[in-house]
Write a structure and sequence with these properties.
Elements lengths: L7 H7 L26 H20 L1 H13 L6
Length: 80
């Protein structure tokens, strides 16, 4: 038996069409259902809270942050 022969499982793992996660296998092209609205764990725990925090900082709390920065400049403390 030569070392160049791959088992069927190794061929599947290294093929371009292989998608490991079960929920991403469906759909017309085998790369996931285009109508799937579920989010990955990283999107729920990292991306979305970061977007909300940045948007709140920019849109909702902008005046408060500017006032805090001016106060810090007047009193010699750090500012934003």
């Amino acid at each position: 038996m030569s070392s160049n022969t791959n088992t069927e499982q190794e061929t599947e793992v290294f093929s371009q069409n292989f998608v490991s996660a079960g929920r991403y296998r469906g759909g017309p092209h085998g790369v996931g259902n285009p109508n799937d609205k579920s989010l990955r764990k990283v999107e729920l725990e990292v991306c979305i809270p970061g977007i909300i925090r940045e948007r709140a900082h920019r849109e909702k709390c902008h005046d408060l942050i500017n006032e805090f920065g001016k106060c810090g400049e007047q009193h010699g403390a750090w500012s934003f």
